[in-house]
Rieske 2Fe-2S domain-containing protein (Gordonia asplenii), 386 residues
Amino acid sequence: MTAVVPPAPTAEVLSPFETGPDTPAGKYLRSFWQPVKLSEELPVGRVQPLRVMSEDFTIYRGVSGTVVLTQAGCPHRQTMLAIGNVEGDSIRCSFHGWKFGADGRCQDAPGQGPRLVERMKIRTYPTREEYGVVFAYFGDGEPPAFFDIDGFSKEHGKDMMSAPIRGTATYRRHCNYYINVENALDLAHVAFTHKLSSDPSITEVGFDPGVVRIRDITVERLEFGVRCVEIEHDAEPTSTIVMLPNAMHLVVAQRDGFLEQVGWRVPIDDERHFSIQITALHTDAEGAERFRAYQARHQALLAKYPPTEDCAEEILRGEKTLYDFADHPDLVNIEDHVVQMGMQFINDPGKENLAQSDKAVLQLRRMFMSRLADFMAGAPTADTGW
C-alpha cells in the first residue's frame, strides 16, 4: 500500500498591502489602536456605517456622548444596524426592532421570548476619544497602551499642545494605504510634487518656499519606527517619523511658522484609505491671525470643488491640471493624491528602481516586514512605545 503524503504547507506570503481580516498585515494593524472618525463627524444620537480594513462596522454616539462601535449586521436577519435608531446609548434595528446596548447585549426583541433576549449579543469593539479623534481597537484580547501623543510631541517635535493653532483633519485617497505611509519618509518628492503649493506668487497658504529643495537626509531606526531628517545648516530642517505600523509625525516649515502633525493612514480596503491628522501651527500672533482669517474663507473655497480625490481623478484623466485648483484649500493633498493614485508598483511588483533618495523608504520596508514576521511568529509587538 502506497502511503499518501500530504503536501507541505504553503508558506504565508508577507505583504504590507493587503489588510483584510485574515491577512498578516491586517492582523498586525488590528493589534494597534486605529483612528476611525473625527469627533465632529459623529454627532450625538447619530449612527453611521464604517468600513475599515475591508470589514464593515456600525458606529454611533449615544445620548450620553459615548461612542459605540459594533459589528455591521443585526444578528436576526443581518440587515445593517447603521440604518437603525439610537435610543439612549443603545441601537435598535430598523427591520424588526431588536435592541442592543453599548455592551452588545440584547435588551429587547419584540415578539420574541425572554430566553432569546438573554442569549443574544452582538460584537462590540473598544473605543477611545482623544484630541478630537475617535479611536478603535479591532484586535483580540485587551487593547495595547494608548499613544502618548503629547509626550511624543514634546520629545520629538515642538510641543504641539502649546501651539496657538490646533485642530484635526481628514481626507480619503484612492490608493493603498501603504503608499501614503511610505510617502511620509520620501522627502525628495516635496521639491516636485509640492512645487505649486509652495509658490507664494500663486498660492496663499502652503509650505515655505525654502523647503522646495533637494537635500540629503539622515535616517535613523528607532524602537518604534524610522526617522528621517533633512541635513540643513542654515535653517531648521524638515523632520518626519513613521511610527509602526501606519502612523506618522511631521515638522515642516510653513509661510507662517511650522506645521506639526501626527497622522494615521488607515485602510478602507486594499485600494482606498483615509487619513486622520492631529495638527498644530507653531506661529506668532500675527501668523495665527492670518491663518484664522484664511480659515474663515475655507468653507467657501471648498464649496467650489468636488472632494479632493475626485479633483485628482480629473487630473489623472487629463481633464484638468493642478493649476485649475491653485486656490483649493487642500491643494497640498491634491498634489499628493495625484502622484500616489498614479503609482503602479503594487500591481507590478519589481518594477521600481529605488535610489539614493529612497534610503528612508527602504529602511521602513525592511523594518515593517521584520516586525510583521515577528508578529506572525507570536512576538508581542503591539506595544506602541510612544
Remarks:
- Residues 147-376 form a domain with the Naphthalene 1,2-dioxygenase Alpha Subunit; Chain A, domain 1 fold (CATH 3.90.380.10).
- The chain has a mean pLDDT of 93.
- The two ends are 61 Å apart (CA to CA).
- The longest helix spans residues 359-376.
